[in-house]
Specification:
It contains three helices and seven strands, in the order H-E-E-E-E-H-E-E-E-H. With 164 residues, the chain is an alpha+beta fold. The relative contact order is 0.19.
Length: 164
């Protein structure tokens, strides 16, 4: 009987430590991604590593101009659960590829002198929320960080969705 209670206590402690690990104050707790073109938001994603879930919003054919943050679930639709092993792999990839060190801005117009400016195409925003509540936001217009593809693959492995 004593061995049973010791095993049960060890199991409960393991579960509690698992939850604490996902709430690491220095680690990434959420990733928000949005894609825009010609002034319209096309899609938004919220990857919540603490609650182990992924949410999405996509432009519909009804003419909606954007997600309604006042709606139920902030206007997002539940897209799936995240697995602990995949969260660990994502955090490792984020560190390996310097995800939190992306520049604030990537713009094809940088360095363009008088003349042509490009505002069509693909604009994106990525906001990383850390466990302590601080945020890091990167924006791009037809330009991307060198590790865009690597982080896109890491997010797809985590969520099953093409988020980047």
């Amino acid at each position: 009987m004593k061995a049973f209670f010791a095993s049960a206590l060890a199991f409960v402690m393991a579960i509690l430590s698992l939850g604490a690990r996902w709430a690491d104050p220095q680690g990434i707790s959420e990733v928000h991604v949005s894609h825009h073109a010609l002034g319209r938001t096309l899609a938004e994603y919220k990857v919540d590593l603490t609650r182990m879930s992924v949410w999405e919003w996509k432009l519909d054919d009804q003419g909606a101009w954007g997600r309604d943050p006042e709606a139920q679930f902030e206007g997002f639709t539940f897209a799936g659960w995240l697995r602990p092993g995949r969260i660990r792999a994502f955090r490792s990839a984020a560190e390996q590829y310097g995800f939190a060190e992306w520049e604030d801005r990537y713009d094809i117009n940088d360095g363009v002198e008088d003349g042509m400016m490009f505002y069509d195409g693909h604009q994106w925003t990525v906001t990383i929320v850390f466990g302590d509540g601080t945020e890091k936001t990167s924006y791009g217009s037809n330009a991307y960080p060198a590790t865009w593809g690597d982080m896109g693959a890491a997010l797809k492995a985590l969520t099953g969705l093409d988020i980047l």
